[in-house]
Predict the 3D structure of the following.
Amino acid sequence: MSKFIERPRYLCTLGGAIATLKVLPRVIPIIHAAAGCGGNIANALHGASGYLGSGYCAGLALPSSNIYEKDIVFGGEERLTEQIATTLEVVDGDLYFVVTGCMVDIIGDDAVAVAKRFHQDGKPVLGAETGGFKGNSYKGYDIVLSKLFTDFVEKNPLKEKNVVNLFGLVPIQDVFWKGNLNILKALLEKIGYRVNTFFGEGETLDNLKYAGAASLNILVSDVYGIEPAQIFEETHGVPYVIAPLPIGSAGTEKFLRTVGEALKTDKALLEQVIAEEKARYYSYIERLADVYNDLDFQRYSVVVADANYAPALARFLADDLGWLPELVVITDVLTEEEQQLVEARFEDFTSGIRPKVIFDTDTSNVSKHFNASWPQNKNDRYFDSFSPAFLLGSSLDRDFAVSIGAPHLSVSYPVSNRVVLDRGYVGYRGALLLVEDIFGLLVGSR
Amino acid sequence: MDYIKDKAPPVREDRLRACNAYGGSCDNLVDQSQKGCLNGIKRTFSQTQGCQLNLSLAILNTIRDSVVIVHGPVGCGGASLSVAGVNKNFQQLRDSNARGLLWVNTNMGESEVINGGEGNLREAILHAEKEFRPSAIIIVNSCVPAIIGDDIDSVVEQVQSEIKAKIVPVHCEGFKTKIMASAYDAVYHGILRTLIPDLDADAVSRSDNKNQLEELQEKYRISRTVNVLNVSSMSRIDEYELVRLLKALELNLNILPCYAHPEDFLKATEAALNVSICATHDDYFVEHLKTKYNIPFILRTIPIGVKYTNRWIMDIAKFFGNEEAAQRFIDQETKLLEEALAPYRELFKGKRVMIGGGEIRVVANAELLTYLGLEVVGMRAYHYDQFADEMLEEVTQSDKVPFNVATGQPFEQANLIANLKPDLYIGHVGGNGWAGKQGVPVLPIFHQSNIFLGYTGVFEFARRLARVLKNPSFNRNLGENTKLPYFKNWYEKDAFSYIDEGN
């Protein structure tokens, strides 16, 4: 039995599937579900992710069979067939992807078979079962990618040495996905690779279609995209390496070395790129020498984030900024094995800092974990308080930040108090933006 | 009307034969509606929309000092993520200590689909009580527990005896109806069954505790009090305007249901009159208060624009027998407003406008825009039922104007805009961005931050309209640089081609 979740920071499988399809170029999701599923998801994918907008054919434009009681009783396959046919008439896309809601999965509609019939007629239609009860957004991402990797990516026994695919960074759930992908692509291009991320700037569906020619899949996650990566390996013979999401100099250097080792990248080139990027990074960070040291900008900190961001942010705070991330709360639903994998990422910070890591899905528990980790002042004359402090979390964590007197920056989903366009926080370049945003808050009242 | 003994209310398709798929002229719409043969809900191509659970949350998320439990898989109610922040600000406009929106999702997974989710629900209720000690715990029931047969009412009955918070079950399963507005009935049904005091018990306690003088004072207070029923897509300043209008009639207001405290509903029966600003929002509630508590109501119109604001005030004044005072107030207000609007009229003259939103408000808005000198070239309403007939019939100039009944369905809107080429689009959230991408200047209305009701609302609307028209460059640029997802030939077809009248 699963446990209730207080203010969950993700949608259901269908939500994750739609999010993934929404940002694939010229892909049209077709929802086979009750009328409100798409509407609910559309709002969450816009207002809680930095005002992403409806996109090309999402928001309230999402084609949807809008089945209701009568269809539930008699089955909705006929209605779906009609909806796919009319969508092909009205909506201009390169690939149409049927995703399902709980109700049609429960009553046993075979949406995948309906989609297949269109496919057999030469129409670019795919389908997957994505009923919300199967899991959360991440599950939807994994299901959609797996389906695309098996049924859309063309088989190609010839591998190109300098082509790689990168995934595991879940669009929209990572509110800064597009900026992040831009940065990682540019970085890998510097060490000599062409990169398919499928969702990145300037990419088309061809980047996905011909992804089978890659020599390696790079996963920036210990837990997301793993199943698709395994399917990719089985189907197309491309191995994968996990190189966790890098933020800042310490993390990105590690990332590049991991990738470099897996790809047997020319060592001299790798060292040269690391040196160049690091030099550029510190040419800007150097500016903070005065303000950091004049105004004492070291901070205690709390990180509340998903499994990808939490280790990356904590490492950046500890190893790059020299801060004290005492508590990290990871809000995703993870198995014990997954928790162990993620927790291990906190063990090798160069600063020697070792944050307390908690896995908890419930928003109001963050303050309880904080109270359990840091002693409360019991009217002591002298007291080692958690101050000055800073909180990196989501917009749901604002109240907690206020309660401990900490400035707060929304970085992980949901982000409803910021507008996000092409900003990214990964790599060297993204870390500079993160520094601007964090320290910007510290000087905000000056 | 008395459905209160039932666990759930009937859906609007059955109760009102409401329609959400129509395209045609206004006069034909009214004609069909009056004949009772307007009940289209089917399209052969459709786009997503809200369900009654989504819309129920729009109201229930505003109730202060409550925890909402969404009983369903983890994504249901996920849109709350995008309003949690701003919701707290709006709650605090009513009570500076308000905690904002708190919710729990019962996270039904595959195992609950097979074994039932009642255990999760029970745990969630107990958690909400222990963690937040709220006045009310509101349960919104989603599709999955409904289809697998969770009996949420018996869970509620059991747990209620263990906790202090009042539990309010709301049956708003999305798949039951395509008329999103069924949500209003579902919400009011839950409120009527749990938060409104039982008539007999209440009378006893009142007479027990009060002497004769106090009782008389109480009676007088009630005789001068009206419940004004607000909607979640209006602002605190809209409410201040309504207070101002009714103060002129020396009336006190209880404002319900949005942003109210659960205990405010205890007073819902202590009013001489229920006044709605939107019939399709409130008929279920006021009809029941009439049946059960004998409180009369006025549902007729909405205080948007001069004509309907005047009528709204006059209808209430008639009930209390002070038409003369009302007329004096109206004369004075309209005179002042006319003077204030004069400088804007030239700017608005002949501008062609399309309007979208809830049925009552769209029609009232058409009247307002016509009054301001614009020409209404198209209207879109989320759904249609009998409540708009009188007003729509009055907007006589608009007889042949196309009226599109659609919950969302931006493809129909895109077609209409491409063909009608309005100078301006005025709409509620959800459709505005699409109009913007077609290059049309947009003025959003029905918002929690703007005033739109009453006389002040007319002026503020005109002022905002002038501002939008002064520099529409943003949307013009969008129009030149973005593309909607429809094939070119869609714009050459009839906008209503996919409405299936045979259903």
Summary: Residues 248 and 329 of chain B are 7 Å apart (CA to CA). The mean pLDDT of chain B is 94. The first helix of chain B runs from residue 12 to 15. The two ends of chain B are 28 Å apart (CA to CA).
